[in-house]
Write a structure and sequence with these properties.
Elements (H helix, E strand, L loop, with lengths): L2 H36 L6 H17 L4 H20 L2
């Protein structure tokens, strides 16, 4: 592949990632509604530890260092808490 073809594929992949983040946000919003109706707190430390652990394992299987996965999911999780809190 040429540099331009690779960049085009990266751009397409980035667009897919953003679309998936949008879908995730909608799912998080639904979770927030359920938590609010049920009186469940937005933050769940047990769930958070489980999520990070599993995502690190998945990342490792794809050659992504744990520190990168952790940083990415800290951002995603922080944003998710904001979305849930606004419901």
């Amino acid at each position: 592949m040429t540099l331009e073809e690779l960049r085009k594929e990266i751009d397409e992949t980035d667009c897919k990632l953003i679309e998936l983040l949008g879908k995730r946000k909608e799912l998080v919003r639904e979770v927030g509604k359920i938590k609010k109706e049920s009186g469940v707190p937005v933050f769940d430390a047990v769930r958070w530890k489980q999520v990070v652990y599993v995502r690190k394992k998945i990342g490792k299987a794809h050659g992504i260092p744990e520190r990168i996965i952790e940083r990415i999911w800290e951002i995603i999780h922080g944003w998710s808490l904001e979305v849930e809190d606004k419901v």
